[in-house]
Design brief:
By secondary structure, the chain is mainly alpha-helical. The chain folds into 3 domains: about 15-85; about 90-170, Tetratricopeptide repeat domain (Serine Threonine Protein Phosphatase 5, Tetratricopeptide repeat, Alpha Horseshoe); about 185-250, no CATH class. Helix content is about 75%, strand content about 0%. It contains 12 helices and no strands. α3 (about 50-65) runs antiparallel to α4.
Length: about 250
């Protein structure tokens, strides 16, 4: 019984493979691969079918065989898109950046810049305890897009993604500050809490940063900074959990 099942499965696989080959063979026959239009359409079919390596090769053929065609430029952009679609974000960032350098006035310049930013953004780790340095590149390009193309269809999402990255970086700064505080390295903790306040204000983390800074200053017997952060916390965020905690701890 198992043997028959295996044979039937193998037959089904072979039939499917033959059908796939037949479809692409028909598609090839319908297109003139000696033209930029035909070869570009052929490459797109492979990209749509998620056969990315073949698609990349075919788009490269369009670019190399028809360098003076408008589709040669579109093939360069399509190559970047294929890298992005297959989640090769380092490669897509480079490809989009190269395209932007070569075609600075392309009609899709805002899209290209958005995809550069997104290529960085998609490389961010899921948790804040890992390296987030790539986020700074994402922020730079998201901000560049909103500045250069404020009416772009990608502007709103760029702002949202930028704020998300800022939020992650702020949380990372506080994560490190908390680590230093628990490790009784209060000077380092204080610097990190104040750094969070300076670099990432207004993102909802200010009360936590002020509380951490006040507690670190207290441990260092730095009355001036303790009072400074305590006053800021109780004045600006009097109803926050952090303000209540500050009072309960007698700081």
């Amino acid at each position: 019984m198992n043997s028959m099942t295996s044979v039937n499965s193998l037959k089904l696989f072979v039939v499917s493979l033959m059908a796939w080959g037949f479809l692409f063979s028909c598609a090839t026959q319908e297109k003139d691969l000696n033209t930029a239009e035909g070869l570009f359409a052929y490459a797109k079919e492979f990209a749509d079918a998620e056969r990315y390596e073949v698609a990349l090769a075919k788009y490269a053929d369009v670019r190399n065989k028809f360098p003076y065609s408008n589709l040669a430029t579109e093939a360069e952009l399509a190559i970047a898109d294929v890298h992005y679609q297959r989640e090769s974000y380092t490669e897509s960032e480079v490809a989009y950046q190269n395209f932007r350098d070569l075609h600075p006035k392309h009609p899709k310049s805002d899209y290209v810049l958005y995809r550069i930013a997104m290529s960085y953004y998609m490389q961010l780790p899921e948790t804040i305890d890992r390296d987030l340095s790539v986020g700074k590149d994402a922020i730079y390009h998201f901000m560049e897009l909103t500045k250069l193309y404020p009416k772009s269809e990608f502007a709103a999402d760029s702002k949202a993604k930028r704020d998300d990255v800022f939020s992650r970086l702020a949380q990372k700064e506080l994560y490190i500050a908390d680590f230093y505080f628990k490790d009784e390295k209060y000077s380092a903790a204080l610097r990190r809490y104040e750094s969070a306040l300076y670099k990432y204000p207004g993102l909802g983390f200010d009360p936590r940063a002020h509380l951490g800074a006040a507690k670190s200053a207290a441990k260092l017997s730095d009355q001036k900074k303790q009072d400074l952060h305590a006053k800021a916390l109780t004045t600006k965020y009097p109803n926050s959990d952090e303000a209540q905690k500050l009072k309960s701890e007698g700081l």
